[in-house]
């Protein structure tokens, strides 16, 4: 998903769930900032680099093949963009190394999604925004894993777009990010085919280009992890599920629902607006920002300003010492660290080291994972880990 859904779409979902205009903006800014929070951005304001939630292309290109570099990369992408669905699934005839990667495949409604939402209950609105980004991406990025792996994430020549009239057209992929995607001609940018198992070209949905992030896309392809058996991905339907689940999750966070459960959706609340939302989803364009912005403003009657990165950073930059934690970026950082630490801990306890090793700070102190340090500082001020 892109800015259109993560920012403007999340704003409207938050408003429908009962948050005020200002609260909805606060949630939406954090949800979108997940796609912007790189180590260079954090370094520019003196913030902890462990809070990075995404990576620049140049950072990924420079990532080493050593285990530490691979773990750092996988922690970011698996925690925020490709949340693992089932860490304990079984598959006959597959070795341990393969299964560790197979267990990182992202799908909606997994146990880690429930934890992602539950752990932000009662927290700041920035934490809700981070959780909504993670939730939404489980629908867009399903069937891919947030770790470099050819045997999991690769696709082959059999890749067809299902057009609105039901006909199928072969997708033409080109490894040139300088050329914009062309929906009319069916030409799209994707990562270059790379034989190395741990090449960043084989991370996430790189081999499928940006198709998983376009709401209008329906396509058939042969994922490597499925033994190259055909899978149909219906983004308009999946994105609607994501939207209704966000509204449901935020109703829970507001205390209007007793428990967050898998496969539950706020269909009743969204129903009066489904025709308009479907119209946005089905519109054949790569950027739905204007349509989502207009929809959100029609709900609240308020202007939804564009997101300005510098505005999100300046308050943190100007704050002194512990006051930084009470800025939008400071609250975002604590939420990001909590999410990354939780996911890493669950993956590690499943016997999978692809995200690295973590530890209980209360028990092991500084010998635990670096991400715990900022959380520990928060705990000493009366918070909880």
N-to-C SSE string, H for helix and E for strand: HHHHHHHHHEEEEEEHHHHHHHH
The count of β-strands is 6
Q: What is the count of helical runs?
A: 17
Q: Extract low-pLDDT stretches.
A: 364-369, 376-385
Please explain how this structure is put together.
It is built from 17 helices and six strands. By secondary structure, it is mainly alpha-helical. The protein folds into two domains: 3-143 and 238-380, no CATH class; 153-234, no CATH class. Strands 2-1-5-6 form a four-stranded antiparallel sheet. It has a two-stranded parallel sheet with strand order 3-4. Strand 1 (159-162) and strand 2 (168-170) form a beta hairpin.
Give me the secondary-structure topology:
Elements: H1 3-17, H2 21-33, H3 39-44, H4 57-62, H5 67-80, H6 96-102, H7 111-118, H8 125-140, H9 150-153, E1 159-162, E2 168-170, E3 172-174, E4 187-189, E5 218-221, E6 231-234, H10 235-253, H11 267-270, H12 274-282, H13 289-300, H14 309-318, H15 328-349, H16 361-364, H17 372-380
Parallel strand pairs: 3-4
Antiparallel strand pairs: 1-2, 1-5, 5-6
